[in-house]
Amino acid sequence: MATQFPYTYYSCPCINPTDSTLPEQDDTFDPSSPRAAFSLYPLEHLLYCTECHQVRCPRCTAEEVVCWYCPSCLFEVPSSTVRSEGNQCTRSCYNCPQCTAPLAVNPLDPPESTSETLTGPFILTCPYCTWSSLDIDLKFDKPNNITGQLSGSKRPEPSTPVDTPDPDLSRASSPKPDPKTRDEVFTALNAFYKNQITHDVDAPGHAFAEQAFSSPHSISRLLNLYSTGKKLKRQRPKPMSEALTPADGLVLFDPESELDTIKRTAAGGWEGTLGGDKAAINTEARFVDDARPVASLLRTKRAKRCRACRTLLSRPEPKISTTRYKIRVVAGSNVPRVGLRPLGAKARATAVSGLGGLGAEVPSLKPLLPSHFVLTLTNPLFDAVKVTLATARDTTGPVKARVTILCPAFEVGANTDVWDEALARDGGGGSQGGGGVPEAGKVWERGRNWVGVVVEVVPAGDAVRGEVLEIAVFVRVEYEAGGDLDGAGKREVGFCNPIWSSG
């Protein structure tokens, strides 16, 4: 919840269930229900769909990746490279395994003058915590292509499997180095089982024929599948052999390594082990001395579409160095902005800003005594709108109160040029109202594109001290849309406006 009171939240239409099998519920919005916590957002966090004429929250939008880029070097990475190399930068961008700060490539023996050429070996150093790759005995021959040098030092190239029908003969004829890391074990197991499936699927009616593995029998399987001749009987699959050697991905329990781990933990204590956040990025290391540099994770620029009609709501510029948007339909430019302030406070400008009466003192609500607030609606459209407000007579939640909107229906002017309001003020017009006694059916104050009405709140006698009184107000906006193709348009927005109550 926000810390400034009063403040305004807007309810997204996705809170209403669309399943017809669910029982019918009351249409009155309950801001105290558990489901309401997932549909209330500030106006600045919402988008607007011009086809559905509804606000869209992050749950109502579908994201599409526009581009991948590295946040360190700001180079764009193709999606094919991301699929093959993973979600990491393939250049020389690495982070410190201790403090996650970007690492710098420096020569081990820096030259005495700047005119001399840098010569190896090179190391990775952290300018923040003074960690270096010398702590794990890691040096590089070149200052570039750090990823290639790291992969060559810790991961041998996988050997090509021999194309023989018997996997046992294949293992005996092509010796492979034993895998050491988790990635190597997974690669060995994947190659071992895929090799069996590829060589076992010889018959057209084999059980594994439906699986999309690369095999020279793929075309024959498809031809037999759609042929009109005699159907072949499905053959029983041959039992698959399991990995029996470390070269195939078998990992054997080594009691000596476990005892060594226990001794190192007892000697170095918990300070020598990697924490939960560091162990998540260094899956191969248990201790601080074994932590390796971590490649910078890639980030994405994403476009957003409406889940209902697939209309594009937001699309950033594909250029990495810019933060501008090519398309961005925000809700603040299409739905009225609502603000709330105590009656008599001189803070209409801040009340319209979206956080309600920011900077204005909110009085305490006293039980059984009426309190008056000014609900201000600002029209961002270039057409005059007709607004209808509705609220429940009695509020729900820990604080019970009776709420009355003195003027539930009114018109708001168009968002025209600000000079029109200045000229009208000089001619005796401009903002009107703001004085006297609140009356039913009468607008309290009015401006160029905003209107303020009075809301009366009477807390119940058993009001809880220090709790928040939440008032759900339903707004219906109707106006004649510009253009001959659109015709008349209706806009409906539900939002919650909590008021601070100290009993």
Describe the structure.
With 503 residues, the chain is of the alpha+beta class. Helices cover 17% and strands 24% of the residues. Among the domains are: 195 residues, no CATH class; 114 residues, no CATH class. The protein is built from nine helices and 23 strands. A hairpin with a 3-residue loop joins strand 20 and strand 21. The longest helix is centred in the middle third of the chain and has 19 residues. It is elongated, with a radius of gyration of 34 Å. Belongs to the dynactin subunit 4 family. InterPro entries: DCTN4. Its main location: cytoplasm.
Give the end-to-end Cα distance, rounded to a whole number of Å: 19 Å
Low-confidence stretches: 19-25, 155-174, 203-214, 347-359
User: Helix share of residues?
Assistant: 10-25%
Structural class: alpha+beta
Largest sheet: 6 strands, antiparallel
- Output the number of helix runs: 9
Beta-strand percentage?
A: 15-25%
Integer-rounded radius of gyration: 34 Å
Strand order of the largest sheet: 2-1-23-22-16-18
Mean pLDDT: 75
Number of strands: 23
Q: How does the overall form come out from the CA principal axes? A: elongated
Pfam family, one: Dynactin_p62
Region (Disordered): 147-182
Family: Belongs to the dynactin subunit 4 family.
Keywords: Acetylation, Coiled coil, Cytoplasm, Cytoskeleton, Isopeptide bond, Phosphoprotein, Ubl conjugation
